[in-house]
């Protein structure tokens, strides 16, 4: 299961790059995917991952969750919100390396908990994270395209980004083997905190005017309903 997870995290950004280069998906559909994925991930986290994590690790895990939430605030200062679909870069302006580094740190930290077979085998959580990664990768590929980044440079950056989560999983396997499940659970708390920040931001800010229209509302309801069904 871990190998399948590594492959999924690696191939998804490359698939997103191919879609952006060949189909150039409409921003409207990206926002709907963001709303759906944000609601689904938020539902899985609150109804499944957090309760189980608190039962296993106790109250101290809350520090890691809050830490992850605050870490994401810092990372988004440099990433400009690409994690939740923002593409506020002017044409012709190169993507700053600090932005790519921020996205890679996010993916690296997000990947570490999946070194735990129980997390990697948790399909609702895995699907939720992958659903969040897809629009994130599409946003990154779109920013690179709008910036006029050359084809080879774009693919190099996408490959570097695609490697971040698998490297996180590998790091989790190495350190987790020595430190035990406590380390991986702490990293899961950190990742959940980051995902909580992103999910709530996606739901309320995935449209340019920040208005919660009927289509987005339906996407959120469907995502939340599927999350509820997935944990029973």
* Approximate shape: globular
Helix segment tally? 9
Gap between N and C termini, in Å?
22 Å
Kindly give the count of domains. 1
Low-confidence stretches: none
Strand content: under 5%
Explain what this protein looks like in three dimensions:
This protein is mainly α and 232 residues long. The chain has nine helices and no strands. The protein has helices at 2-22, 27-57, 61-79, 97-111, 117-120, 123-146, 151-179, 181-205, 214-230. α1 (2-22) packs parallel to α6 (123-146), α3 (61-79) packs antiparallel against α4 and α4 (97-111) packs across α8 (181-205). It is globular. 47% of the residues are buried.
Give the tags.
globular; single chain; mainly alpha; 232 residues
Can I get a quick summary?
80% of the residues lie in helices and 0% in strands. It is an all-alpha fold and 232 residues long.
Helices and strands in order:
Blueprint: H1 2-22, H2 27-57, H3 61-79, H4 97-111, H5 117-120, H6 123-146, H7 151-179, H8 181-205, H9 214-230
